[in-house]
Design a protein that fits this description.
The complex is a heterotrimer of chains A (257), B (561) and C (357). Chain B is mainly alpha-helical. Chain B has 24 helices and no strands. Chain C is built from 14 helices and nine strands. In chain C, helix 7 runs parallel beside helix 14. The chains are: A alpha/beta (257), B mainly alpha (561), C alpha/beta (357).
């Protein structure tokens, strides 16, 4: 249902090569994470898939249909994707309900159906009681859920998430991670997730694509990434960091115990 | 925001009090004095003057005309400014950097220069455009008549829409692009996004700019004085000048009473817009520095560029060409291209007058001081308004708007009466009195720009600095002002430019030593040398453009119009 | 932010320096006393400062200033030039503040002199040759006419033929052939226009205003009228002769004066010395000397050079391309200046009612 195929994607900004020949296929129902340090090109890749920018060269196919090639370019509103932004991008002039209903209004669904779907998705993210609130009355975590609900309400094949949890506190991040993962399993939706947080990537994903300087370093399951790093970078950036974190926890519990 | 127990010396209150004192002494007091003289002519409150004024039906006509022309100018001004601002800041229109500066040109020259140009172009008998069109299309009558309400609205709009344009460009540039991107990915086309997301979020800025255009149009004297007369369209400002010109105290009182209407009007507008916009900060800027996403116009790119160019030609190029042509025309009865009619003597006039350089310098100094001091006041007052909960914080905002709505001639006279030593302070015939006059008149514009900027930035950013231990001054310097910088710069220019060429107040307050370019310009115009006036107007425009270029170069693009 | 502020200060400092240097280099040169001051005895003794408010043309003021510098090398004369209305309102405001900004006024017409005299703001100084003056003057010496404007008609022969334009003030108002094609100054803001209207009102009655109203005359400044005469937008204007003469001399303009058959309206403009308690520099001695100078042939020559009529009957000189004073005075419409002063409000109201609307 929702396969993303990326063929030799390059992206240049002026003289800077942000992406150098990225090729991958993401299959239906996967939870894929693009993991890498700042500037590695992961957000750019996401934006290319969303359609906010055009690749300098290469092709993007969604479900066997070309959305970005030399001859074809589908703008974002025609790609049928859902996206959650790092800044949530919840519209301040609309209340929660209207925010979430927006994609459905655009598709000109009848009012009753809109209400049904919106209430349904608000329940999924546990925001059903706050439907009348305005965004400036919500906390960060609540705004995040609204953004999530809005991205899901039109039942997209793929959900794109651009570092959605980095503005939340640690505890909230933890619980949101679990919720998102749960959601994915329940809805069977494909998720393309971008983050720089190693443990986040490893704990949530079916597959992780580690990037650095516009190039894929390694693509594999979290276990493969952790235990069989393909090169030094992956080892340093992922393996070592996780190992350090585990060591911290051990020494901490050691002190306690 | 700051809740501290016990008495704490908070430096921001020092600033606030200083500024309030300044406003009270130099803005409120002169105007109040004038009002006092108008309503308490014989020592006791009397509405005689009011009865006298409002018994003339001519004056009611003026009120009506002013309201109509100002309102229409406001509406059209914003209707023009917003799409242009959007095209120029948010899309891939060809040549948008160029258009961005081009569309500002009209407000870099005194409005009456434009009025004279349009009068030459669109008068029904021999207007250049009319003649050309008649010949081209074989019409029996001239298609355009500038001496109508439509004509006046046209000139007012083309001269004051830049206020809105500047504000809106800034606001659009600083908007968080992900808000629009979220709409796009939800399925909205660029146009749909514009109407359902961008526009509603720009409402506070649109409101601010609408007020500015209205107040500017309503208190404009130059344009109605030239275009109104033939069609018997009188406005409050022209009537006020007539009262003032009687040279009597009663005339002055009558003029004041009429002015009150305008002052009150700008206050009412301010109230209205505050009500409509509500307290909501339409926070549209997050902490990250973001490039606003560019809408790809695709197949509309060329047609829209052509449309914009046509617009630019009609609004800007044509009148300026007329001004330039005039400056080179020996005999205004013939075309500049007629034989022997091209001359540079008027330009020579301008450059050989020994007073020109001095006047230019004076204008530069007074305008710079007015803009700089004015913006300092605006920043602090806007801060007070938006970031504190002090009771009565709206008052400075009202005071500032009060001043801007007052016709220039009334401000000047009020200053003469109060600042010439009668009350202990004598600033007459100094540059200081000019600076004060400009500040009173133009600060509101700077204020609106700053408030609009504050609306877009959440308090979070400043709070973050506070948490890190920065005191108020530090926070202002390190966080607030840098974030506001584009709005501050826009506001600075919005005050600087009209001060630079201002003539009505300067005409009353100048002395030989403090003569300004505006006065020079006005004199040439009044001494029947519109050609020299045109040449001087071109010089003023060039000076402003050069200044803009220099500032841009010096600050690597950060500080410019 | 400091950086930017500093930069701005720096910038204006740099610009200021550059411009000052530029000015110094150009050199205003007006401070050179060109030839010896043989013309006046004891003129070096006239010292101090004097400020003059006037509505005369700029160019004239420049000439006058340089002449005055030659005549009175130790006297610093400053001019404030503005329209009559501007100056009158400025003076009114200054009076309210308790002190005027000038020592001499050369503006408006004699009813203003009367008005200021009544308010006790003037200082009298008898002019011994007053019998040589062609116009009324204040017998106690509070004001004397120093120049005379002349309200006439004007047209542009390159745009309209001579028989297509009015040739009298009566024709101007009554001939419907000219409807919508005429221009005049606003009597509510222009003193000379106001006096002219009073004169015409007396000559032709209230009906004159009514007719003017029907003519749809455009009421605007003389400068605008001149511009429109040149482009042909206006057929004829009721205008001060000096505006036309200036254009003719300086730009070889085709605009031509029509001396109305029923008489032009000369409007003499007074010179007044401000009383010591109101005057800016309290330099009565210099003010008196200057008044004498302006009324003397030397001063009058300057005035005539400025396209205005002089006021002395014993001088032959006349403005460029116009008549001699005695010629001009042969056919005029008289103005009742007392009426101008006393009935100002009614006449203004009448004009507004009949013509402005």
């Amino acid at each position: 249902m929702s396969e993303i195929k990326l063929v030799q994607i390059t992206k240049k900004y002026g003289k800077v090569d942000v992406l150098k020949g990225f090729t991958e296929t993401f299959t239906d129902g996967e939870f894929i994470t693009l993991l890498g340090p700042s500037g590695c090109g992961k957000t750019t890749m996401l934006r290319l898939i969303a359609g906010f920018e055009r690749p300098t060269s290469g092709e993007i196919w969604l479900d066997e249909k070309p959305v970005s090639t030399d001859t074809v370019f589908l703008p974002p509103e025609e790609r049928g994707l859902g996206m959650v932004f790092q800044s949530y991008a919840v519209w301040p002039h609309m209340n929660v309900f209207k925010n979430v209903a927006y994609p459905l209004k655009l598709r000109k669904l009848p009012k009753e159906e809109i209400r049904e779907k919106v209430e349904h998705v608000l329940e999924i993210v546990n925001m059903q009681d706050l439907a009348e609130r305005m965004p400036d009355e919500l906390s960060g975590g609540q705004q995040q859920r609204v953004a999530l609900a809005r991205a899901l309400v039109a039942e997209p094949g793929v959900l794109l998430l651009d570092e959605p949890l980095s503005n939340l506190d640690a505890k909230l991040r933890e619980s949101m991670r679990r919720e998102i993962k749960d959601l994915q399993k329940r809805l069977g939706i494909s998720i393309l997730y971008v983050t720089h947080d190693q443990s986040e990537a490893l704990s949530m994903s079916d597959r992780v694509v580690v990037m650095n300087e516009g190039v894929i370093q390694q693509a594999g399951t979290p276990m493969e990434i952790f235990h069989q790093p393909a090169n030094d970078f992956v080892d340093q950036f992922v393996g070592q960091v996780i190992r350090d974190q585990m060591a911290d926890i051990e020494s901490f519990s050691g002190v306690r115990g | 925001m700051d809740k501290r127990s016990g008495f704490h010396f908070d430096v921001k209150w020092v600033f606030i009090l200083l500024i309030l004192a300044f406003l009270l002494v130099f803005l409120v007091f002169p105007l109040l004095y004038l009002l006092f003289r108008a309503f308490f002519a014989d020592g006791s409150f009397s509405l005689d003057a009011v009865k006298r004024i409002y018994s003339y039906s001519l004056n009611w006509d003026c009120l009506r005309n002013t309201l109509i022309t100002a309102s229409l100018s406001m509406v059209f001004g914003v209707l023009i400014a917003f799409p242009l601002a959007w095209l120029v800041t948010r899309t891939n229109l060809y040549g948008r950097g160029f258009f961005r500066t081009l569309f500002l040109l009209t407000y870099m020259v005194p409005p009456y220069v434009g009025a004279m140009a349009w009068m030459r172009l669109l008068n029904p008998k021999v207007g250049t455009v009319n003649v050309v069109l008649k010949n081209l299309f074989g019409l029996s009558e001239a298609p355009f008549n500038i001496y109508t309400v439509g004509g006046m609205v046209w000139v007012l709009t083309t001269f004051y829409y830049p206020f809105a344009f500047i504000l809106l460009c800034r606001a659009l540039e600083r908007m968080d692009p992900s808000l629009e991107e979220a709409a796009r990915i939800s399925g909205a086309s660029p146009v749909k996004t514009l109407f359902t997301v961008t526009l509603p979020m720009m409402l506070p800025s649109i409101g601010s700019s609408a007020i500015m255009v209205f107040v500017a149009a309503a208190s404009c004297y130059g344009i109605p004085s030239i275009i109104g007369a033939p069609g018997k369209l009188y406005t409050i400002t022209t009537r006020i000048s007539e009262y003032v010109a009687t040279g009597t105290s009663q005339g002055l009182a009558d003029a004041t009473v009429l002015s009150v209407f305008l002052m009150v009007l700008s206050l009412v507008l301010l109230l209205l817009s505050n009500l409509l916009m509500g307290k909501k900060n339409r926070i549209t800027i997050s902490g990250k520095s973001m490039r606003p996403n560019i809408v790809d116009l695709r197949k509309w790119r060329i047609p829209l560029t052509i449309l914009t160019s046509i617009f630019a030609i009609v609004i800007i190029v044509i009148p300026f060409l007329s001004v330039i042509a005039t400056s080179f025309t020996q005999n205004m009865g013939k075309s500049v291209f007629a034989e022997g009619n091209l001359t540079v003597r008027f330009w020579q006039n301008v450059f050989t007058r020994s007073t020109i350089l001095k006047s230019a310098l004076n204008s530069l100094i007074t305008a710079t001081l007015a803009a700089t001091l004015g913006m300092i006041i605006c920043i602090i007052m806007a801060y007070l308004l938006k970031r504190t909960n002090m009771r009565g914080r709206k008052i400075p905002d009202f005071l500032i708007s009060f001043g801007s709505g007052t016709p220039s001639v009334v401000i000047a006279l009020a200053l003469i009466m109060t600042m010439s030593g009668r009350f202990g302070l004598n600033l007459y015939n100094t540059m200081a009195i000019l600076v004060i006059a400009y500040m009173i008149k133009y600060m509101m514009m700077g204020m609106q720009s700053t408030i609009s900027g504050f609306s877009q930035i959440g308090p979070v950013l400043e709070e973050a600095a506070a948490v890190s231990g920065a005191g108020w001054l530090r926070r202002m310097k390190d966080v607030v002002i840098p974030m506001l910088l584009p709005s501050i710069v826009a506001g600075w220019f919005i005050i600087f430019i009209p001060s630079f060429y201002e003539l009505t107040m300067s005409n009353l307050l100048y002395s030989e030593k403090t003569m300004t370019l505006g006065v020079e310009l006005f004199r040439y115009q009044m001494n029947s040398s519109q050609q020299t006036a045109a040449a001087l107007a071109c010089c003023i425009l060039l000076l402003v453009l050069i200044l803009n270029l220099v500032m841009r170069k010096l600050t690597k693009g950060k500080v410019s119009i | 932010m400091h950086m930017i502020k500093r930069m701005k200060k720096c910038l204006s400092g740099v610009l200021a320096m550059a411009l000052t240097l530029g000015m110094a280099a150009c050199g205003s040169g007006s401070d050179k006393a060109e030839d010896g001051s043989g013309s006046g005895s004891g003129n070096e003794a006239v010292t101090g400062s004097i400020v003059i408010y006037t509505s005369m043309y700029n160019d004239i003021i420049e000439d006058i200033k340089s002449e005055l510098k030659k005549e009175f090398p130790n006297l610093d004369v400053e001019f404030f030039q503005g329209g009559t209305g501007t100056i009158q309102s400025k003076v009114a405001a200054e009076k309210d503040a308790g002190k005027l900004g000038c020592d001499i006024l050369m503006v408006a017409e004699q009813s203003y002199g009367e008005e200021l005299k009544e308010q006790g703001m003037l200082h009298p100084h008898i002019f011994p040759d007053a019998d040589k003056l062609a116009f009324e003057y204040d017998k106690e010496g509070y004001w004397y006419p120093v120049r005379s404007l002349n309200m006439v008609l004007a047209y542009n022969p390159e745009k309209y033929k001579e028989d297509e334009v009015p040739h009298s003030m009566k024709d101007f108002a009554e001939n419907e052939k000219y409807k919508g094609d005429l221009s005049m100054s606003d009597p509510l803001t222009s003193g000379s226009s106001y006096c002219t209207m009073v004169g015409l009102l007396d000559k032709y009655g209230d009906g004159y205003f009514k007719s003017l109203g029907h003519q749809n005359v455009t009421i605007e400044s003389g400068a605008n009228a001149v511009a429109k005469l040149e482009t042909g937008e206006i057929r004829a204007a009721m205008i001060l002769e000096e505006s036309i003469l200036k254009k003719r001399e300086e730009e070889s303009s085709p605009l031509t004066v029509i001396y109305p058959e029923d008489g032009s309206v000369p409007v003499p403009s007074p010179i007044m010395i401000v009383d010591e308690k109101y005057s800016a520099n309290k330099n009565i001695q210099a003010a008196e000397v200057l008044q004498e100078y302006f009324l003397s042939p030397a001063g009058q020559k300057l005035i005539i050079k400025g396209w205005m009529y002089g006021v002395r009957t014993d001088m032959e000189e006349h403005p460029y391309d116009s008549k001699s004073l005695s010629e001009m005075l042969k056919n005029t419409i008289p103005v009742d200046y007392e009426k101008c002063l006393k009935q100002r409000d009614e006449i203004r109201a009448l004009f507004q009612k009949e013509v402005s609307k």
